[in-house]
Design goal:
Layout lengths: L1 E3 L1 E3 L2 E3 L6 E5 L6 E6 L3 H16 L8 H17 L1 H12 L3 H21 L6 E3 L6 E9 L2 E5 L5 H15 L2 E5 L6 H13 L6 E3 L4 H10 L5 E5 L2 H11 L5 E5 L5 E4 L5 H13 L11 E5 L3 H13 L19 H16 L3 E4 L18 E4 L6 H4 L6 E7 L2 H8 L7 E5 L3 H10 L4 E4 L18 E2 L4 H6 L2 E9 L11
Parallel strand pairs: 1-5, 8-9, 8-11, 9-10, 11-12, 13-14, 13-18, 14-17, 16-17, 18-19
Antiparallel strand pairs: 2-3, 4-5, 6-7, 7-21, 12-20, 15-16
Helix pairs in contact: 1-7, 2-4, 2-5, 2-6, 3-4, 3-6, 4-5, 9-10
The structure holds nicotinamide-adenine-dinucleotide and betaine aldehyde (BTL).
Enzyme class: oxidoreductase
Organism: Geoalkalibacter subterraneus
GO molecular function: betaine-aldehyde dehydrogenase (NAD+) activity; metal ion binding
């Protein structure tokens, strides 16, 4: 049994209340760890430590190349511990071990990327309109950052925040999801090993409504970066208004995958499956909303059904498994409710829509890969984020119709389309209102390119150069080399 505590001001500490929480493996409901369960006071103490480290410590004033070297070193430690971290992630989330390994490779690269980027900004010189003067823009670290992450990609989403914040010279208080804290705790141990000064990296554990809300509300926090659901994101935004802290939000998505009749059929088909069933559909950018041009509809549905029947559902540690369990009983209930409503609204259930019957899957939160046809734009299952292994198929006849429908939700995270027509590629890329648009591909993200949502899918961008800039304030420094009295108020 793993036992873990919080990390505050360079010390591993229990919750002040002494409370702990059992962490469950969603594949079999076994208790895998006992971790400290912090409260608001634990959050306050961590914020105070981060505040001291920022205001009085060396970190924000450490030369950027030295900060970058430490961030890079953390990437090397993640690479060294790849297998252990991947195993922890699979234990905690149920995703297949191979998917967890991909995450760890990605994460090591994120730290190395931001480590390298830390000293690349030399400021900017502005052409001043005033004679004998200079005008310079410099970027400085924002300050103390609260970083709240979700359960579906626990360490990946934490790293998108941690690496650029540290590279920029900020101090951080991380709060992983209370149900999947293990890899965030492990990377905190690695940050300690790398040698980050006390108070620069802090990790608090516990419920969002307590520990997370304190981070969002605290006047001592300068920036809150949140990844999670829209409802919680709005709460965070409201809470942050108290001291007008900077807010970065990565929220949910309803991501259309649009297949035109001239698409490369086999590849598009394969990416419909990849787009939804990786991590059992628990991906913000899951392409669960499949829109297919009418002439291709029947062929696609038939081929999809054949492929879906062959998906092996099972424990993420079994190398044959291609899809693990859902994260919790509550989350599976939510997916089931969406499936029931879809049927009531007239969608046609082709496959799945139930828990698997196999004996060896009874202890986990498994759900069968599910396929609906006959879906329409007004259905709840088409408009809302299900976050489960459920595909809805809609037919369309014209490009304009596909665009209008794809854009018709409150979300704007990502969208993809498949066609060989170069003119259509240009038109569609412009018309789709999403933070990421994939052309003849789906669900691709990498460290070098920014990620974030239009509309209610979020605020700000993570990754790439913009991901670093989120953690900086821009200061304009103006110097007059030949100042003279103005005498407006008399000499
Ligand atoms: N846009 C992206 O890049 C991205 C990436 C991953 C996940 N997501 C989204 O995350 C959601 C799934 O994650 P989830 O179920 O963990 O989300 P959630 O909103 O329930 O929780 C996210 C985090 O917020 C904390 N929290 C809960 N209440 C809080 C409060 N009042 N104040 C502060 N923090 C609070 C939780 O403890 C958790 O750490 C999905 O909607 C998914 O689309 C988005
Ligand atoms: C952003 N991404 C795709 C890594 C995970 C979303 O849940």
């Amino acid at each position: 049994m793993i036992e873990k505590r919080m990390y505050v001001d360079g010390q591993w500490v229990d919750a002040r209340s002494g409370k702990t929480r059992s962490i469950i493996n969603p594949a079999n409901q076994e208790v895998i760890a006992e971790v400290a369960e912090g409260g608001r006071e634990d959050s306050r103490v961590a914020i105070a430590a981060a505040r001291r480290a920022f205001d009085q410590g060396d970190w924000p004033r450490t030369p950027a190349n030295e900060r970058g070297a430490l961030v890079y070193r953390l990437g090397e430690l993640v690479a060294r511990e790849r297998e252990e971290l991947a195993r922890l992630e699979t234990l905690d989330t149920g995703k297949t071990l191979e998917e967890s390994r991909w995450d760890m490779d990605d994460i090591a690269g994120i730290f190395k990327y931001y480590g390298g980027l830390a000293d690349k900004d030399g400021g900017e010189s502005i052409a001043s309109p005033v004679p004998d003067s200079s005008s310079t823009l410099v970027r400085e670290p924002v300050g103390v950052c609260g970083q709240i992450s979700p359960w579906n990609y626990p360490l990946l989403q934490a790293s998108w925040k941690m690496a650029p914040a540290l590279a920029a010279g900020c101090t951080i208080v991380m709060k992983p999801s209370e149900i999947t804290p293990l890899t965030t705790i492990r990377i905190t141990e690695l940050a300690q090993e790398a040698g980050f000064p006390a108070g620069v990296v802090n990790t608090v554990l516990g419920e969002g409504a307590e520990v997370g809300a304190e981070l969002a509300e605290s006047p001592q926090v300068d920036l809150i970066s949140f990844t999670g659901g829209i409802t919680t994101g709005k709460q965070v935004m409201r809470a942050a208004s108290g001291n007008v802290k900077k807010v970065a939000l990565e929220l949910g998505g309803k991501n259309p995958n649009i297949i035109f009749a001239d698409a490369d059929f086999d590849t598009a088909l394969d990416y419909v499956l990849n787009g939804v069933f990786f991590h059992a559909g628990q991906i913000c950018s899951a392409g669960a909303r499949v829109m297919v041009e009418e002439p291709l509809h029947d062929r696609l549905v038939e081929a999809l059904a054949q492929r879906i029947k062959r998906i092996v559902v099972g424990d993420g540690f079994n190398p044959d498994s291609r899809m693990g369990p859902l994260i919790s009983a509550e989350h599976r209930d939510k997916v089931e409710r969406y499936v029931e409503v879809a049927q009531r609204e007239g969608a046609n259930l082709v496959l799945g829509g139930r828990r698997p019957e196999a004996d060896h899957l009874q202890d986990g939160f498994y759900y069968e890969p599910t396929l609906f046809t006959g879906c329409s734009n007004d259905m709840k299952i088409v408009q809302e984020e299900v976050f489960g292994p459920v595909i809805t198929i809609e037919k369309f006849s014209t490009e304009d119709e596909a665009v209008a429908r794809a854009n018709s939700t409150i979300y704007g995270l990502s969208a993809g389309f498949w066609t060989r027509d170069p003119d259509r590629i240009q038109r569609m890329s412009r018309a789709l209102r999403f933070g990421t648009v994939w052309v003849n591909d789906f669900n691709v993200y990498f460290t070098q390119a920014p990620w974030g949502g239009y509309k209610q899918s979020g605020l700000g961008r993570e990754l790439g150069k913009m991901g670093l800039e989120e953690y900086t304030e821009v200061k304009h420094v103006y110097q007059n080399f030949n100042a003279k009295p103005l005498n407006w108020f008399g000499a």
